Amino acid sequence: MSAAVDVFAQHALPVWEQRMNDEQLAAIRHDSGPLRLLAVAGAGKTRAIVHRAVRLVEHCGVNPERILMVTFSRKAADEMDARMRHLGLGSVSCQTWHAFCLRVLKEDATRYATWTIDDKDRAKFHTKKAMGHEGENWIGGDFTKVRRFIGHCKANLWDADSSAARAHAEKVFGHQAGRAIRVFAISQDAIENNGLLTFDDMLVYVYRHFQQSEPARLAWAGRFDHVMSDEDQDSNGAQIALAEQMARDHRNYVAVGDLAQGIYSFRGSDVRYLAEFPERWGSPTIEMVRNYRSGSSIIDLANSIIRPGKHRLERDMIAERDGGTFEGKVEVVACDVLEDEGRELVDFVNRHKDGGGSYADVCCLFRLNAQSRAIEEALLKARVPYVLIGGTNFYERKEVKDLLAYLRVAMNKDHDGDGVRRCINAPFRFLGAKFVERVMAEWDGGYDWDECVDRAAETTGIQSRQKASAKEWLAILDQVREKACGTVDEEGKPADVLDFLIRKTGYLAWLEKEEGEESIESSHAANVRELVRVAANFGTVEELLDYVDENVRQSAKQRRKAPRDAVTLMSIHRSKGLEWPVVWVVGVNDQILPHARGDEEEERRLLYVAVTRARDHLVLSHVREMATRMGLKTVERSRFLDGITIGTRVPKGQQPLGTWTSGTPLSEGAVELIQEAIDNGIPCFVTTTDEVAQ
């Protein structure tokens, strides 16, 4: 009877209010004034705000062209636009802040209207040049840190000569703050002189345009009666200021987001803007806490992870899928090393496929790009189709190709000169493109690049420092060759050869100078460490190179096929807003998640985002050993799992043989058990307070 009443009641409602819960209805029925709408993952917030727009048009008589809906990403904007069109309201403006600002710059015929959009990041070149001898000549300056500083300033609308930029520079660079400020000013002048329109500058220029021309601001703000900003936890200072400029007159401003999903501080976003919205705007708050996406076991874990966080909704997320009856499944898998994670994932995926599922059901998420190497190799070896989103095959990453290029040239396996081009000036040796042209001119089609470089160094017009650098490079190749072909067993090991090469060339120090110190955004150094660790699995350098070549070929073949039914691999950051039936998160370890250099609050939110991507089945895996800056080290599982009761599965062959009281002698039975394991090829570690027996 009650069900019939519910059905009747639903049909009595207008179409934009049907099949909505109380919180969604409250948001839809908010006619005017500011509002903060907080919504957990899977709560149907996009559906709610889209139907709010429908109600504004159909019930309140608002012209659809006078509704502005903005969001963080192009994908989210396209999704909102598609939903509005499906509902017959294609004239509602759904776009990103960048698209909106570009529209303003063009329609108002500003000086930036004809500038070239910097979609290939040409600004990077101007910043690097500003740091070089033609600019500040900042020897040893951290390029990535400077770029991050400039981006942070622009995200907060700080000019190079502002007191706020100066204060931030002093915080980041200390006594070298002045150099960072000058690089900012020099590079910005070059960017503007070359007519480049960066995405950061789009926001800055429109904000200034509105600040300097009140008629222009009023004209644009007057076009819209309502502003709705989705994913507002990812907004930066510039976007918040633009929203204020657009909504300050009518105050019909709805900020939508989830405090627990703010994960883009490295882009200048700050979750505090959404947290403080009610104080700034005097607005009410509606909380949407019902998750219709995931099983209750996944929701329980997500709640446990985010509950200690500073920025989150006051109430826990509520599992509503199938009326809250669908439980789903959560597993934790403990592995020894990254390769074990890869093998476990492959076994899991194949079991899922054999059970009637599809490869496309499964997404593997990782915190750092370096983690994808073991996963890709395991999938390739097992011939499981996959697609890597937003990334490059491990062996095709710049720093990996640079170091392998040294080995190719040294072992006479550089068949086309690509290896020479890659490594002769990495690290920087004054042997740039013109010198490489001379080397290629000396090439006779053979593999003896030593002679080509030697002859090129003696040609007319070569500077003395270039000659010295060429000799130094040749000497390093000789030493690498000697190490790789050494008679002493240890000297021929690829890992030892690479370790020698990295130390001899100072490659890591140069890489940090070029790409910035290792940070939560930069895993270049982690890729180098992972390459050395992988190399330890091969007996000779030639075996390593042959394996890499085959891996690259198979990976390219895989990409060309582009199968529809394929496992998805991507970083957690890229997974925001997406969902899959099955999600496997690798590397749920301290030092990775949370990242050793990350903000723990934001790292917690990042794991929460990863967990809430799963609909039916979630697997979290962690490893016992990992390559770190200090070498191969034992690592703990993520502290974010502390106090959470989940059964941990240990892969076959890695189960503990038994436990003994620390500091006491091992019994004869224990010794026999250990000996039996060793005889069967199972690695065995017994730790006491006094010694480690192996």
| Largest sheet: number of strands, sense, barrel closure | 7 strands, parallel
| Distance between the first and last residues' Cα | 70 Å
**Mean pLDDT value:** 87
Structural class: alpha/beta
Describe the structure.
The protein is of the alpha/beta class and 694 residues long. 46% of the residues lie in helices and 12% in strands. The protein contains 28 helices and 21 strands. A seven-stranded parallel β-sheet has the order 13-14-12-15-16-11-19, with helices on both faces. It is globular. Mean pLDDT is 87; it is low at 1-5, 657-664 and 680-694.
Q: What labels describe this entry?
A:
694 residues; disordered C terminus; single chain; alpha/beta
Secondary structure blueprint with pairings:
Blueprint: H1 2-12, H2 22-28, E1 35-39, H3 45-58, E2 67-71, H4 74-86, E3 93-96, H5 97-107, E4 116-117, H6 123-131, H7 143-155, H8 163-173, H9 177-193, E5 196-197, H10 199-212, H11 214-221, E6 226-229, H12 237-247, E7 253-257, H13 272-275, H14 277-281, E8 285-288, E9 290-291, H15 296-306, E10 318-319, E11 329-335, H16 338-354, E12 362-366, H17 372-381, E13 386-388, H18 398-410, H19 418-423, H20 433-441, H21 449-457, H22 464-484, H23 494-505, H24 507-515, H25 524-535, H26 541-561, E14 567-571, E15 580-585, H27 600-611, E16 614-623, E17 625-628, E18 631-634, E19 648-649, H28 668-679, E20 686-687, E21 692-693
Parallel strand pairs: 1-7, 1-8, 2-3, 2-6, 4-5, 6-7, 9-10, 11-16, 11-19, 12-14, 12-15, 13-14, 15-16
Antiparallel strand pairs: 17-18, 20-21
Helix pairs in contact: 2-3, 5-10, 6-9, 8-9, 10-11, 10-12, 15-27, 16-17, 18-22, 20-21, 21-22, 22-23, 23-25
